[in-house]
């Protein structure tokens, strides 16, 4: 039996790049398939709701805390076989971008400044600068809450803009395989992408990345929010970034309630001005 260490009353603030949230009733970090299975069976036996977590770079946690069990994916292996990359679901997306670009492989240049995990990136089909996680995906290993493992080829999963059919499943992405293409310009392109993100986004602030999905009409959510004059709008400790209008930053003491109210206010004001309802990109546990 794999050994698992359950931590009670874990600070959710420490698990999110937003620095917001109360306490998790129970928390466990898993770094192998065996510990993941044992954790899921532990939760099933006790009828505990399970929340899967990567790097917490896209998560808004509630101030009152979370019941059940948070399971953080820390399966971190990386293996390269020619142009194929096998990588654990908890592996850093930014590190994957750096490694593959350094090895002159294209497909993950967009990832250099994204603080998420590989599993989270697949789950939501993260992307930037014209690239998406699903573009180079070959297959995914997924464990359901009963401890059963399935290998899904890309064609068995539906990917869209910031979405995948994995969002309809309950369980964890254990690992994934990607097929990349040789490119002598990958490292330089990655540097350019990272430089642009540093210039355009408040990467030094506490945030969880883009709050809203871009509308289907091709206009970015950031442009709509900016044109509506909402940069700098603040409720409590939550503030729309002056640097990038689709980012909300925690100025130091923001609550999840502050963020939720600010998100709703932006949605209402954009709808009133443009007749478009902005859909949230972030994962909320409220």
Molecular structure report:
By secondary structure, this protein is α+β, with helices and mostly antiparallel strands. The chain has 6 helices and 20 strands. The chain has helices spanning 33-45, 93-102, 118-124, 186-200, 221-227, 256-274, and strands at 7-11, 23-30, 50-53, 59-60, 66-73, 78-81, 84-88, 105-106, 127-128, 131-132, 137-144, 149-153, 159-160, 163-164, 171-179, 181-182, 234-235, 238-240, 248-250, 283-284. A 5-stranded antiparallel sheet has the order 6-7-15-11-12. The protein starts with 6 loop residues before the first strand and ends with a strand. 42% of the residues are buried. The mean pLDDT is 95.
As residue ranges, the low-confidence spans are none
Mean pLDDT: 95
User: Percent helix among the residues?
Assistant: 10-25%
Secondary structure tally, helices: 6
What is the overall silhouette?
A: globular
Under CATH at level 1, the class of the largest domain stands as Alpha Beta
Rg measurement, Å = 19 Å
The strands making up the biggest β-sheet line up spatially as 6-7-15-11-12
Number of strands: 20
For the termini, the CA-CA separation is 34 Å
The CATH architecture of the largest domain would be 2-Layer Sandwich
| Main β-sheet description | 5 strands, antiparallel
Q: What string, H for helix and E for strand, traces the elements in order?
A: EEHEEEEEHEHEEEEEEEEHHEEEHE
CATH topology group of the largest domain: Uridine Diphospho-n-acetylenolpyruvylglucosamine Reductase, domain 3
The tally of domains stands at 3
Structural class given helices, strands, pairing?
A: alpha+beta
Estimated share of beta-strand residues: 25-35%
């Amino acid at each position: 039996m794999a050994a698992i260490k359950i931590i009670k009353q874990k600070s959710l603030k420490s698990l999110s790049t937003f620095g917001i949230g109360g306490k998790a009733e129970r928390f466990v970090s898993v770094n192998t398939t065996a510990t993941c299975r044992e954790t899921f069976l532990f939760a099933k036996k006790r009828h505990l709701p399970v929340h899967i977590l990567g790097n917490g770079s896209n998560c808004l946690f509630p101030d009152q805390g979370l019941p059940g069990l948070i399971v953080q994916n820390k399966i971190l292996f990386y293996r390269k076989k020619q142009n194929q990359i096998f990588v654990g679901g908890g592996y850093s997306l930014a590190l994957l971008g750096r490694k593959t670009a350094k090895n002159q492989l294209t497909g993950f240049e967009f990832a250099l400044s994204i603080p998420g995990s590989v599993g989270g990136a697949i789950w939501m089909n993260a992307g930037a600068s014209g690239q998406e996680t699903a573009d180079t995906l070959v297959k995914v290993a997924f464990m359901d809450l009963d401890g059963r493992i399935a290998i899904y080829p890309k064609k068995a999963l539906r990917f869209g803009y910031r979405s995948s059919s994995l969002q309809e499943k309950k369980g964890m992405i254990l690992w994934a395989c990607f097929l990349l293409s040789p490119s002598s310009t990958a490292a330089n392109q990655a540097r350019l992408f990272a430089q642009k993100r540093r210039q355009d986004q408040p990467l030094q602030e506490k945030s969880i990345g883009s709050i809203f999905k871009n509308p289907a009409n091709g206009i970015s959510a950031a442009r709509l929010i900016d044109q509506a004059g909402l940069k700098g709008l603040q409720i409590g400790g939550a503030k729309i970034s002056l640097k990038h209008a689709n980012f909300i930053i925690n100025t130091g003491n923001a609550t999840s309630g502050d963020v939720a109210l600010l998100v709703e206010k932006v949605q209402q004001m954009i709808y009133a001005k443009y007749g478009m309802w902005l859909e949230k990109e972030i994962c909320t546990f409220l």
